[in-house]
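user: can you give me the structure for this one chain? tokens are fine.
assistant: on it. calling the predictor now.
[tool input]
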Amino acid sequence: MSGKIIEISTNSGHLDGILSIAEQHDAEVISILEFQKQQNRVAVRIYSSENSVQTVLDSIQTLLPDEADSTLLLLPVDARVGDSAELVTEKVEQVAATREELFTEINKGTDCDLNFVLLAILSTLVAAIGLAENNVAVVIGAMVIAPLLGPNLGLALGAALGDKELIKKALFTNFIGVTLTIGLAMILVIFWQPDMHSQELLSRTEVQLSSVVIALAAGIAAVQSLTTRLANLLVGVMVAVALVPPATVLGMMIGLQEWSYASGAALLLLVNIAAVNLSAQIVFLLRGIRPRTWIERREAQQATWINITIWMILLGLCVLLIVYIAK
């Protein structure tokens, strides 16, 4: 069975508690290292199966709640030598990611740094060229860059964990990314007139009920690929739930003062954002992604249901508007 190595560096007074936790959850103690130059310090390595690694982590964190000098490391295991001295490699691909791994992975996508700004600019330029020239391959290239997916997943995870700082950071990065994309697209059309007959361009100004279904399904797939560490699915998800093309079209149409087309692109962008956040939030809830302590769980549960309610109302209003326009 696939597993992880948990390395704990802490005060030696916690050693018995750590060993008890390992025994309770059938985790294997690999090594215990006592530091000669640092008295009362130990480093313990535990091998835990994927099924119990989150429980073991939570138990150890409960044992060391306020230990500022304690460190926990989570290390992947690619292969293991069994008792028969044969190299055993894991073939299990669909294994659950821990809460800490999800936070580390998604939190990186919410950073509003130079890298994010450059990706937003480049994806907008690529999308604008592909949309204006009706080039599907170029538009897909902009979709794969997908700088706006990370902040939206971060917003959902922040609500699931009750992490206000992550929510604020995700909202800010999302706002900067969308504003930058729309603003740059508005500037581009001043110097470069797109082909208004481009099918790639016009298709982002029309919204159907199928657009809602696609966005919901893609949002579920995005979180599923992260929680099960099936990263090879994420590229397809980026294409299916692309946020940059409709945001680029919105900016282009505002710049051209084509308000009818702009409203359609705005509605599509809103549908995609609401659907991705709603589906991501529901998947996190169903997969039990939540904080460790009871107090934190209560706050996170409130944030989760508020988030779900807001996105459901927003998506419902979008659906009503789509139905009204279709009449």
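assistant: here you go. The chain has 13 helices and six strands. The chain has two domains: 3-89, 99-326.
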